[in-house]
Amino acid sequence: MFIGHFAVAFAAKRAAPRTSLGTLLFGAQFLDLIWPPLVLLGVEHFHVEPGVTKMNPLAFDSYPISHSLLMSLVWSVVIGVVYLARRRYRAGAIMVGIAVFSHWVLDWVTHRPDLQLAPGSEARVGLGLWNHPSLEIGIESAMFLGALASYILQTRPRDGVGRWGLIGFILLLLFFYVGNVTGPPPPNADIVAWMALGLWLFVPWAAWFDRHREVVRRDGQRSPLA
């Protein structure tokens, strides 16, 4: 998934309104944020193989540190505990931890059986939703639209940054999503890894426009985001 991971961050804001959207996005995308550096360092490996699934031409050979089940659980606990120690906000810590692990769950649904259970394990899992494009696109789009609607209803812009920063963020996401679905396979793995580093830019961008929005309380009044 791509926008499905972003959907988790937008949806999590309702359960942890004091947590920055940038932090929630960091959690939801954490496994993919650490994956490109590990690939470029030669620690994890994949190659381009058009047709390996109907939607995604990337064949993941080995990525146990970033994407194995065991390490995903470890990362979710570590990130959640670090957040709790820094912010002392239990709801936020729980949602950040859940967001980290949600990435593995969504990948398990979409990937072919290439997700290792633990580093060194030969067992691999994946339900292969990428081989059913119409169903995958429908599910992922519904997730994103529902989560985005939840965020927009929960928060209001305080200024132009809060309004247009969010709109620009959404448009760029959709641009990349459509490109991923309809574009040709990338020429090689190194280009994919270098381009994937750009995912880091979405984290401060989300934090930026989120700071310029305010949570609408249940009584209809507004309160500034933490």
Describe the structure.
The chain contains ten helices and seven strands. It is mainly alpha-helical and 226 residues long. It has one domain. It has a three-stranded antiparallel sheet with strand order 5-6-7. A two-stranded antiparallel ribbon has the order 1-2. It starts with a helix and ends with a strand.
β content, as a range?
5-15%
How far apart the termini lie comes to 29 Å
Helical fraction equals 55-70%
Mean pLDDT: 94
Largest sheet: 3 strands, antiparallel
Q: Note the overall shape.
A: globular
Number of strands: 7
SSE ordering: HHHEEHHHEEHEHHHEE
Structural class: mainly alpha
Please give the count of helices. Answer: 10
Low-confidence stretches: 219-226
Spatial extent as radius of gyration: 18 Å
Q: How many structural domains in the coordinates?
A: 1
* Order of strands across the main sheet: 5-6-7
Brief rundown of the structure:
The protein is mainly alpha-helical. Strand 3 (115-116) and strand 4 form a beta hairpin. The protein has helices spanning 3-15, 21-28, 30-40, 64-67, 69-87, 90-110, 133-154, 160-182, 189-196, 202-211; strands at 45-48, 58-62, 115-116, 124-125, 155-157, 213-216, 222-224.
Outline the fold blueprint.
Layout: H1 3-15, H2 21-28, H3 30-40, E1 45-48, E2 58-62, H4 64-67, H5 69-87, H6 90-110, E3 115-116, E4 124-125, H7 133-154, E5 155-157, H8 160-182, H9 189-196, H10 202-211, E6 213-216, E7 222-224
Helix pairs in contact: 1-2, 1-6, 1-7, 2-6, 2-10, 3-9, 5-6, 8-10
